[in-house]
Amino acid sequence: MLRYAAGDPDAFHKLYERHRGGLYRYFLRQSDPSVAEELFQDVWARVIQGRKRYRPRAAFKTWLYTLARNRLVDHWRREGSRPVNDRDNGFPEEATPDENPGPQRLVDLRDCIEQLLQLVAGLPDVQRQTFLLRHEAGLSLSEIAIAMSTGAETAKSRLRYAMERLRAAIAKECLEG
């Protein structure tokens, strides 16, 4: 980001390529595709607009997701509530462990991913955001604390509560299913 702020346009391209997938998924897991696209574009526009004012107080990724979270919260405030995202967003970008999974395995994986996404969407807002910042964006607990303007212990507790809720919901599904 410092190179981009100094006038290197290739540096922006590298930042965009490195962070676009995770940032878009962060928004997509919490809104419908049209809103996710709007928020995604708006955050990148803010990165461009803020390049001259950027000061590296934390990692660029932390700053980026702080912008993203703030933009998402602003959107929810303007809309009055957060929509529950219960549709199938497809596979994550990462490949499955199976090199060549069969058709039934792909169906099973898709069902598992859809179920997990629904469970994540059902988490309380701060737990869902903490979970996504950790597992979609790859932020550390200290980076999450900065992005969410909270203490590291609070971020740690929110992540732990989110994981406990997800584990309990998955265990319940296994017992009922």
Structure description:
The protein is mainly alpha-helical and 177 residues long. The chain is built from 8 helices and no strands. It is globular, with a radius of gyration of 17 Å. The termini are far apart.
Task: Indicate the topology.
Layout lengths: L1 H4 L3 H20 L4 H17 L10 H20 L23 H19 L3 H11 L5 H7 L4 H25 L1
Helix pairs in contact: 2-3, 3-4, 4-7, 6-8, 7-8
Keywords:
about 180 residues; mainly alpha; about 0% strand
Alpha-carbon distance between the termini? 48 Å
Mean pLDDT: 83
Low-confidence stretches: 84-98
Largest sheet: none
Provide a brief overview of the structure.
By secondary structure, the protein is mostly helical. About 70% of the residues lie in helices and about 0% in strands.
